[in-house]
Amino acid sequence: MSYEHASKTLPSSSRFGRENEQSQPNSSMSSSQNQGHFGGRGNGHPPWLRGKEIGLYYRDLQRNRAKKRELRIIKLKQRVEQTMKLAVENSKGLYNKLCDDEEKRNSTSNDLENKYTHIHDSQFKRKFLEILSGNIQHNITKAMSVKSKLERDPVSDKNLLDEYNGKLYNSDYKAMQAFRKKLPAYEKKADILDLIKKNQVMVISGCGKTTQVAQFILDNELEQRNGSITRIICTQPRRISAISVAERVAAERGERLGKSVGFQIRLEKISPRERGSILFCTTGMLLQFMQSDPALKGFSHIILDEIHERSTESDFIITLLKQIIPVRPDLKVVLMSATLNSERFSSYYNNCPIIHIPGFTYPVEEFYLEDVLLLTGFRLVDSSFKEKEPAYRRHQKKYKQQHEKTCHFLNIINPYIKQLTLEKEYPKFVIDQLCNPDSENLSLELIEELIHHICTTKEPGAILVFLPGMMDIVKLNRIMLNSERYPNSRYIIYPLHSRMPTIDQRLIFKEPPTGIRKIIIATSIAETSITIEDVVYVIDCGKTKLSKFDVNKNMETLEPEWVSMANAKQRRGRAGRVKKGYCYHLYTKAREMTFDDYPLPEMLRTRLEEVILQIKILQLGEAKQFLASVMDPPNLKAIDLSLDLLRTLNALDNDEHLTPLGYHLAQLPLDPRTGKMIIWAALFSCIDPVFAIAASLTFKDAFYCPLGKEEQAMKKKLELSMWQFSDHIALAEALRRFEINYSFGFCHEYFLSFNTLKLLSEMKRQFTQHLYEMKFLDNDNPIDEDANRNSNNIALIKAIVCAGLYPNIATIKHGSDSKHGVIAWTPEDGSVKLHPSSVNNKMRNFPSPFLTYFTKQRSTAIYLHDTSCVTAPILLFAGSNSSIKRENGKYIITLNTSQNFVCEPRTAKVIQDLRQAINNLLEYKISHPGTVNWNTQEGQILNALIEFVSQTDEEMGFVVSGAQSNQQSNTGLITLKLWRDGFTINDREIRPYSDAENREFLAAIKRGEIPAEIRQEVQDAELRLDMEDHRHEEYVPPKTKVKAFTGKGHMLGSPSPATVGMTIPTDPADQAANESQAKKQLNLDTTKPITTIQIRLADGSSVRAQFNLTHTINDLRRYITTYPLMITLMRPQYAIRDFSLLTMYPTKELTEDKTIEETGLKNATIMQRLK
Hints:
- By secondary structure, this protein is of the alpha/beta class.
């Protein structure tokens, strides 16, 4: 079943509510098609209704939906309610403000100190209040009074000079210096050093500056006996750049890393010596250094490289340096930029001097769209847009947008067409096609024709094709393969995208054997991140996909747009590196004249939460005031949206001050949402899976999708998701299994990147170190037992993820059908889609109508990325600012994401009281960092919450339209197949046409009615009836389908089952008897504390059962062996085989004589392993 707001619908070509008894429709059944459907209007009324009948149909439909909504009443189980009440009662007064006496408040002069008198005096409190009350100018002044690490030391100066002079006689070093002297930058060495000497700030543009400028400075300072007061830091925009440049510079100096050259990036560093050295690092690392050294007294020279890329971090540092430079006259700042926009940086720094380093490349001949059409003779399809549309269409939004786009195109192209016509350089068919507005649309067919033209008329050389996105790469690759014009014996095609495997990427950089042409199809990743030396031909489609933030819709976008001149120049420069090159632009010269000079700065197209937290932790004042001083100030609305989200996360208070939680989040190298996740995970003792999820969301997930293997990749991802309707669980499980296997074979089987998983594993360890230093963990081991006591509880993991991502909540409208993915709904956007990469996108039925998601992005549609299906209890925990109101005698809990939950009065009260107790506890733990003592009231409160979120919607009475488990996917969906001698319903036994019992059924079908038998089967559910005509075929019994278990008992950390469970039709009475028999063996005492445990059986299936906390592991074993439905019936051989019971996080075998309470299995999931 699927969901539509509060009511259920089924994806189909025909939908039916309960049939109006007054209508007796007449219809005939068509046999001309192999598969026919009733209706055909999607969500509309049945086509045979007329007049008043249509109105009555919709009236009844609305009444049914309203009735179903009323059924959504939450009611707690008595046992869970008692647990929650007891926890709330015992917590009363526990976390009241401890220092709130009026006398102390009056004696506190500082308003901020007065606000936080309830926090015990501690190192945390002192640091926190210092951050709140300080400012950057005070910090810089204070830092200037501290003794510098770069104090002059004549002895060090002499030793460093002697070492440098000694190199001059080394043959390897001399050979390297001879090579360096041939570089264009070396000719400008004297001029660069002279400008640095005379100016505090300068800009260098041009070629070869990255590896040479820092060495020029260091060598000069060593020669001047200034080695002891010289420490150069050079920032790079990417991790790989920082490492590779450091390695290259060290090699040029005849050294290994760690002497005069080193690097530092997140998770990895090889530090150089403290004096007379160069440190290459990412831009973010310099920001971290500034937290402890605001005046940057530990460095003599700051080199900011690749600043023309305008990353948020580089713009941030450029602004900050303007405050540091006046008080550090000895500090030298070198800004290194591409030639195109170096003047802007000079202007920002009071017209500081610029020096340009000329470079050498082979000439590149350029062609434009008009030339490509002439060369290939390609004919574009005529525009589908008609100016003379019917009057009613002219008022439609789509028409208006297309009309505006066409007018804009004609304003650009018409003057150019006149010029070309006068010059008579191009034939009429080219001119005519340039007038077509669709000539600016991406034509993969034209690109394939151009590639073929190059291959058949031009000399050997690699071809590099730039396309906007991955789907374009996939389609072009398919077109080329289907054309059969590129045999493997003569061509090798490489797709290049960040989501594609990188195992064989090194082959892209190697020249192919003689007689084979290399063709690379890439996105903008090939502009700067990589250099392929043998490229001779570049095809530039002129489009790119750039992630932006739409402030008006509060949404990220990823849509194709024209490149900038800087992008186009960079793409052209990929050719002509080894000989004369050729660049084919698939746009006209007229369009090129409209390009921006360079891409939009990142700060103007991204969310600003992390920037604002950096502003706060560096004590830079109000966000709007500081951001107004950057080179290109962001939109005020974008700042407001980010401030609102930080307040929702409780990272900022209403006065824009950091809260204790915000202080912690600002210390973490994470998006604030994922930062909140890992802190909550530490408090709830489930760090391993949540840290894996946070690392994947922060950096990138490890899944890739090879061309042609999309289905296999999705099947493996579904397996890793444990059928828990969660991309996040798949991320955690992928990393868990990798850390056990640690092999390329595992990664290859599951379509995972080994290098990405390795990095994610390191990030997990870094998170653990951070939280250990912040005192939220007792040690820095990510698989520590105490820190993972609840890591087997998938509901809790989802709850923590949801709490971090809130208010990113969507409601499922309907599940997937064969053609379309899942459709969901958000209050801001209405209907949205799940991204095709999500494991939830092909799910027909969900256990709950709610999804939480990481990002929402508009490309070809509005897509939700990284989703998890969450239950009503989880949403009630995660939702902030909930309120309870009484309406028509009922109590309604309202969340600020527009979800409402009707509940009984006492249920509403106990939920509200527990939420308050949880909030008090979390606030206390955040402001008094420390681990949770699970044997005290702290543990009691958290355990009560864990029991609450571990309930399913069904267990709480939150049932939407008779919601059932995912396994009952045939409910509401009927497939009727007509065979030569009879018919089948949902592939059951064939029913002969000649059988008198089937006469009424067939008569109803012929009349176009829904047979009473089917109406009775689906009861209140809305119906999809698919009819397939096989009357020309003999009936063939279907093969037994084997499918993986898709129930709700899977456990995070289960191994892949060697066999999968089969669905076995059983009588509900037999099943109840089996369960009753197993429970009798347990002697379950309902007067004592009870917990629910999910047991993952060895065949891949699961069972969920209740136990007393005093039951032992032996009792669990006995329950399994006396549960005939799951063991004796399904897998008789299991009943006689020995097995062990294990839990994961960390993996350990459970001791048989210990109780459930002693082993910490409350609300956990365990697994059976055969011996």
